[in-house]
Write a structure and sequence with these properties.
This protein is globular. The chain has a single domain (27-163), classed as Peptide Deformylase (Alpha-Beta Complex), CATH 3.90.45.10. The longest helix is centred in the N-terminal third of the chain and has 16 residues, at 33-48. The strands form two sheets. It has a five-stranded antiparallel beta sheet, sandwiched between helices. A two-stranded antiparallel ribbon has the order 4-5. With 170 residues, the chain is of the alpha+beta class. The chain is 26% helix and 29% strand.
């Protein structure tokens, strides 16, 4: 246990007003030891904050990599690099939150079923068909790589109400 704690590297999560969260992340071109280290840091940070997903921009890196794990069970993580959302079918609504906007939970409409192409930590291509909570988490984290936050999917009136409330976006 002490050995694992010594290797743990929890990063500071960028909050909603941070400019990196509004930028489109850059594609990963080099699958190196530093990318594997970033993936470990993302995992550590996600688990330390009881998240089900986290994207590199949330810890200050403009790179197209995210982690998804709706079960929150270690070993069940999905690392997705350079994702492309190929298909989105149906509609569902689920209450979402975000590590970068703590304390705000809102129902968000998303595709019920998706098909996403990406690369793993070694650069090998894969395709995932997902539905339910996994599909929602994948879409949420994909949005982070596009410079979007889940609150951007709220109605104008809901966003206005959030803006006039005591700020949690900073």
């Amino acid at each position: 246990m002490v050995c694992w704690l010594a290797q743990m590297s929890v990063q500071r999560v960028c909050m909603g007003s941070h400019p990196i969260l509004r930028q489109k992340a850059q594609p990963v071109e080099t699958f190196s030891q530093s990318l594997r280290r970033l993936a470990r840091d993302l995992l550590d940070t996600m688990y330390a904050n009881q998240g089900v997903g986290i994207a590199a921009p949330q810890v200050g890196y403009s790179l197209q990599i995210f982690i998804a794990n709706p079960s929150q069970e270690r070993g069940e993580e999905l690392i997705v690099i350079n994702p492309v959302l190929e298909k989105a079918i149906g509609r569902t609504s689920i209450t979402e939150g975000c590590l970068s906007i703590p304390g705000i939970w809102k129902p968000i409409k998303r595709a019920k079923h998706i098909c996403m192409r990406g690369q793993d930590i070694r650069g090998k291509s894969f395709v995932i068909d997902a539905e339910g909570l996994l599909a929602v988490v994948l879409q949420h984290e994909f949005d982070h790589l596009q410079g979007r936050l889940f609150i951007d999917r709220l109605s104008w009136l809901q966003r206005r109400a959030l803006a006039s409330a005591p700020s949690r976006l900073e």
